[in-house]
Specification:
By secondary structure, the protein is of the alpha+beta class. The chain has one domain (about 5-155): FomD barrel-like fold (Beta Barrel), CATH 2.40.380.10. It has helices at about 115-120, 125-145, 165-170; strands at about 5-10, 15-25, 30-35, 40-45, 50, 55-60, 65-70, 75-85, 90, 95-105, 110-115. The strands form two sheets. It has a seven-stranded mixed β-barrel. A two-stranded antiparallel ribbon has the order 4-5. β2 (about 15-25) and β3 form a beta hairpin. The two termini are about 20 Å apart.
Length: about 170
């Protein structure tokens, strides 16, 4: 499969981190990637990110968020980390997203925590971008409530039931 470099940028477009990821499927406005956590364990208070966790990352060029499904190395679902971002720039060999600090954590049971609201409030964003970010939070909450892809919890790119249409249709 093809590989891309994922570049997380801050709200001002400055590089924060980059890492390689494998392309699972690609569409006109979305790309689904597989990556793994290759750093030391990190306890976020609501989840511990551990070496060899499997990440399915979904980036959209027309939505103000991305979604990371996180599973243990043996496939157990930990939950979804949703970053509120400007729409991603999806190229042939690179995916870049400008993070707007506001995040959501979604547990496997569908419960949601909104994260980093204070940090988001301090960013020098205009009214339109703040509205787009808040709309993205509302859209993600609605997707979770309706169990829309990937929040139904049964999709696993390692399984024989992989369907690329599901990952780009959602």
């Amino acid at each position: 499969m093809d590989q891309v470099i994922v570049r997380k940028l801050d709200h001002a477009g400055r590089p924060v981190i980059s890492y390689p990821a494998e392309v699972l499927c690609r569409g006109d406005r979305a790309i689904v990637l597989r990556a793994s956590w290759d750093r030391d364990p990190m306890d976020l208070g609501f989840v511990v990110l551990e070496p060899q966790d499997r990440w399915m990352e979904i980036f959209y060029s027309n939505r103000w968020y991305n979604i990371f499904e996180i599973r243990t190395s043996d496939g157990r679902l930990k939950g979804w980390y949703c970053n509120i971002t400007r729409p991603a720039h999806i190229g042939e060999d690179e995916v870049a997203a400008e993070d707007l600090a506001l995040d959501l954590w979604v547990e496997p049971d569908g419960s949601i925590q909104v994260l980093d609201e204070e940090e988001f409030a301090e960013l020098g964003l205009g009214r339109a971008e703040r509205r787009a970010a808040r709309n993205a939070v509302a859209e993600l909450r609605a997707r979770v409530a309706r169990k829309r892809f990937p929040f139904h919890g049964s999709w696993d790119p390692e399984s024989s039931g992989f369907n690329a249409v599901d990952c780009l249709d959602g």
